[in-house]
Amino acid sequence: MIPVSAIIITLNEERNIERCIDSLKSVVDEILVVDSFSTDRTKEICISAGVRFIENKWMGYSAQKNFAHQQAKNDFIVSLDADEALSDELRRSILEIRSSVATGLFSFNRLTNYCGKWIRHGGWYPDIKLRLYDRRKCRWEGTIHERLIYPRDEKVILLKGDCLHYTFYTVDEHRKQVEKFTSLMAKEEFARGRRSSWFNIIFNPVVKFVRDYFFRLGFLDGKEGFLISRISAHAAYMKYTKLMKLSK
Predict the structure, then answer these.
(1) Rounded to an integer, what distance in angstroms lies between the CA atom of residue 43 and that of residue 13?
(2) Are residues 127 and 226 in the same domain?
């Protein structure tokens, strides 16, 4: 079988990391956790699970993942976040790939659990992620929503099964992340030369809500669908407001 390493970057992930590791154990030859000096039980859980554990100062999402996949023992990489886990069907798909004679680039759908409910609409599913790859051909880029950069002539194959994403346990966690990420996004866009206007601040949040809640059928996810659409619209408002402040 093709040798595969799994990489996970962590910071205070004691409530998620064991589930993530358990989902990988029957699928890969090595599980590598690169931790940014967690102050909770993350290190203890990882060592008890028998994974390779490396501590490295936080470098940013993409840089930390690039560091992690360079530390791995194998070239073929599965990259998961600590709050993700492979479904049974996705594990079977990866094992089938490992039994083949060639590696490549493989993606899979990500199904998100929001406050205890699986979200299947509003643009949140299928949330296709490219996470199974040959590190010799790829690198991570991006400040917040990191993406894998790969040769454009490479074919990406979608595997069967879902990556289960246990995102926010409470609505307050969602709001706090929006506050943090909109600041980072505004700074990133400002550095790229983008500017905001009152049109962006007023119009974009409305379009965001209507698109996600109505056209992307967010209403089918019940009250959680409404909350997600409303908070996402507010995030657009916050991002463009913060971008305008930076411009001034």
Answers:
(1) 9
(2) no
Supply the mean pLDDT for the chain.
96
- Chain CA centroid to CA 151, Å: 21
CB atoms within 10 A of CB 57: 8
Check residue 72 and give left, alpha or beta (phi > 0: left; psi -120 to 50: alpha): beta
Give the CA count within 13 Å in the CB-facing half-sphere of 153: 0
Q: Is the pLDDT of residue 144 over 90?
A: no
Domain hosting 126: range is 4-166
Rounded Cα distance, 203 and 120, in Å: 26
Judge whether residue 101 has pLDDT over 70.
no
β-bridge pairing 30-35 and 129-134: unpaired
Are both 131 and 26 inside the same structural domain? yes
Last residue of a domain, one of 118, 149, 166: 166
Q: Are residues 23 and 132 in the same domain?
A: yes
Mean pLDDT of 2-31: 97
Residue ending a domain, among 102, 134, 166, is: 166
